[in-house]
Amino acid sequence: MFTTPEQFASANKATVDSLLSLANTALASAERIAALNLNTARSLMEDSVSGAKALMGAKDVQEALSIQASLAQPNVEKAVAYSRSVYEISAQTQEELSKMVEGQFGEFQKTVAGLLDKAAKSAPAGSDVAVAAVKSAIAAANSAFDNMNKAAKQVAEIAEANVAAATNATVKAVGSAAAAKKSK
């Protein structure tokens, strides 16, 4: 497959570089999730303390219920924002990883095409049919990969739209419920 040590070394370097890129992408995503978790935990703790202080300062049961109802909406909005942030980080990471895989697949296609051309030139007479069959199989595999890639992107877009719609519906529903409790 490799005719010179330089080609072998180059292929190994490319593989190591690809693995490092994948590792760096995964670590960057983990860092973002960890930072989001820490910030969310800090905010949750601060909100809990201020909510507890507000409830302790209530003069009667009616005021305590009113305070408790007013705390629900921001908590739901923060939970939805957290979920949305996790989803966005995951989607961005998936997109970056997909681009890397596409790039690697493109390089693989070029390598296979080059090897196939070399093999076709040195193949014995009458092997044109076998070479054409292999080229056809490779073209079919490439087409299948492209179709899968397009389908995956469409599914991701649909999922993103559904997450956004569900998020908005949840926030509106909680807002309506909180408004209904306040008007009682």
Automatic annotation (TrEMBL):
Boundaries of every Phasin domain copy: 6-105
Domain of life according to the entry: Bacteria
Organism, scientific name: Dechloromonas denitrificans
Name of the protein in question: Granule-associated-like protein
UniProt cross-references to Pfam families, sorted A to Z: Phasin_2
